[in-house]
Amino acid sequence: MNRRTFFKHGIGTSLALGTYFTHGAFSNGYALPPLTYDLVAVKGGDPDVMFDKGIDALGGIGMFVRRGMSVVVKPNIGWDVGPERGGNTNPKLVGRIVEHCLHAGAKEVVVLDHSCDEAERCYRNSGIERAVRDAGGTMAPAHSEGYYHDVVIPGGKSLTAAKEHEAILKADAIINVPVLKCHSGTRLTIAMKNMMGNVWDRRFWHQNDLHQCIADFAGYRKPVLNVVDAYYVMKTNGPRGISTGDIVTMKAQLLSTDIVAVDTAAVRLFGMEPGEVRYLQLAAAAKIGRSDLDHLSIRRITV
Asked: What pLDDT digit, counting tens, does each position of 54-93 carry?
């Protein structure tokens, strides 16, 4: 199916949605095995090479993706800009993750984001659509409310319900792949905020304590793995940026099953303190994950 046809018809319109309203790592009840490291930090290589090294340190993609699973890889594809602008997740990283998942026997690997700029242009000009297609994955449209379905957010304080994309509701596993960059509304956007691209009604978040909504949603359904792309890091004018002058080339990557830990490490990598990002404080206080990096097992790799 070509891109235009796929954008027209969508996917999974006959989902048995009640089956997928779960809050663990996988909708099929499979639990993650214990890992040697809580977090892996890689620096010095291309995005795809750094992922190879990082996922190997965690025991391989087979620790997170089993044969026959349906997987959603969720990058940031919010903006109609090229990879060198750092507005979106690096396509080399996204493509390599898709390759790993399929090699592990995934039944399908779907990639999507609720883009801010015009969706088809974002998918194409980010370089992600081609990288995913070349790797054997599928791009799912996310630009229409019809792709989203009501979910309840148990324990949410500001966010108690949302409309989430049907491909994510259907998936056995979600791999969250944000790009690290500054943001005018939240100081930084990393793994937790990247999950806003899963939902339709983002305006509500902005009108009802954005930081609390981000923390509420982070506890709803946790990705099996978070991979923070810090190759090109936008230091100014985020989240879209103006030019490559906004970018610092850090050539770094962070991997963790803990969305709070990986965001905490990314904040420090950016040059800020965790206390400067309110949604991170809220999520840590709610025990969605751990922010005490000094007490975690961290593997550091230089390529």
From this structure: 999 999 999 999 999 999 999 999 999 999 999 999 999 9
pTM: 0.91
**DSSP states of 134-150 as a string?**
HHT-EE----SGGGEEE
Q: Is residue 100 part of a domain?
A: yes
| 3 is a domain residue | no
CATH of the domain at 132: 3.40.50
Summarised one tens digit per residue, pLDDT across range 248-288 is 999 999 999 999 999 999 999 999 999 999 999 999 999 99
173 within some domain: yes
Distance from C-alpha of 201 to C-alpha of 131, rounded to nearest angstrom:
28
Give CA–CA dist 299/166, Å, rounded: 35
For 289-303, b where at least 16 C-beta lie within 10 A, e where not — what string?
A: bbbeeeebeebebee
CB 111 within 8 A of CB 142: no
> Among 60, 68, 25, which Cα is nearest to 40's?
60
